[in-house]
Specification:
The protein has helices spanning 22-28, 34-42, 104-108, 135-142, 162-170, 208-215, 246-255, and strands at residues 3-4, 20-21, 46-48, 51-53, 59-60, 67-69, 72-74, 82-87, 116-118, 126-132, 150-157, 173-175, 178-180, 184-190, 194-201, 220-228, 231-232, 241-243. By secondary structure, the chain is of the alpha+beta class. The protein has three domains: 20-73, RNA-binding S4 domain (Structural Genomics Hypothetical 15.5 Kd Protein In mrcA-pckA Intergenic Region, Chain A, Roll); 82-145 and 231-256, Pseudouridine synthase I, catalytic domain, N-terminal subdomain (Alpha-Beta Plaits); 149-228, Pseudouridine synthase (2-Layer Sandwich), CATH 3.30.2350. The strands form four sheets. Strands 8, 9, 10, 11, 14, 15, 16, 17 and 18 form a nine-stranded mixed beta sheet that branches. It has a five-stranded mixed beta sheet with strand order 1-4-3-6-7. Helix 1 (22-28) crosses helix 2 (34-42). Keywords: Isomerase, RNA-binding.
């Protein structure tokens, strides 16, 4: 149970001129209007360095203090940038390539010199890739401990039955490196030659979706990643990118334990 925030805290006193007002920080983090953020504080939902804060006007230095709302830490990404990028086919998930192939750097240019990709998509796959210059965020997103869910839309050869789709969730398949199950598998459309299927799984193993369907005789002819954790590809066009909003960043950080 957090302690009540008091004026005995010296550097954290609301009269201290260091840092920014807490309600402004909450607003920047995507919690709504300044008035709504003030109510969140008054409702006793906010902690600073483990102590409950209910006094409006409290100032916080985000460079050295931690703020939590309902137990989840908030992060203001003022010194970092995190991007959502829609990788087209035949683009390498790398920042440079000795062979001269098109890379992620060719898409984002030199505007964000320090960003790097969090995870990969194989050369012929498409869709969402997250990029950042925030090392802590990247380490958490990539860490197997958190197993961030990823959603794909795959086109496979052949007519996949509902029974097989359910079996991929309930039983899974055995690959060279062990058993793997899908979290979700739904048939979106199909004809005699192809099936369009939406799948969600937590595994980050290389070419895992292609390997799963290939192992049961349904080779993947097109693969698009549409979501990573709470971040969705949405209407982002192939070969373009956007900066994550503070609301998206907060939800992603929460997903990976930050």
């Amino acid at each position: 149970m957090p302690h009540q925030y008091s004026r005995a805290n010296g550097a954290q006193d609301s009269k201290n001129n260091d840092g920014e007002r807490l309600q402004k920080i909450l607003a920047q983090a995507g919690f709504g209007s300044r008035r709504k953020c003030e109510q969140i504080i008054l409702d006793g939902r906010v902690e600073v360095d483990g102590e409950l804060v209910t006094e409006l006007g409290t100032r916080v230095d985000m460079s050295r203090q931690q703020v939590r709302v309902d137990g989840s830490r908030i992060r203001i990404n003022t010194n970092h940038v995190t991007l959502a990028l829609n990788k087209p086919r035949r683009v390498l998930s790398a920042m440079e390539d000795p062979k001269g192939r098109y890379t992620l750097r060719d898409i984002i240019g030199d505007k964000y010199e320090r960003v790097f990709h969090m995870g990969r998509l194989d050369y012929d796959s498409e869709g969402l890739i997250l990029m950042t210059d925030d090392g802590e965020l990247s380490q958490h997103v990539m860490h197997p401990k958190y197993e961030v869910a990823k959603t794909y839309v795959a086109t496979v050869e052949g007519k996949l039955s509902g029974t097989v789709a359910r079996r991929l969730v309930t039983q899974g398949v055995k690959l060279d490196d062990g058993w793997i199950r899908l979290d979700h598998c739904a048939i979106l459309d199909q004809n005699r030659e192809h099936t369009l299927v939406k799948v969600t799984l937590h595994s980050g193993k290389n070419r895992i979706v292609r390997r799963i369907f290939g192992s049961i005789g349904f080779p993947v002819t097109r693969l698009v990643r549409t979501q990573i954790g709470p971040i969705k590809l949405g209407e982002l066009k192939p070969g373009s990118y956007r900066v994550l909003s503070q609301v998206e960043l907060r939800s992603l950080s929460k997903e990976v334990g930050l």
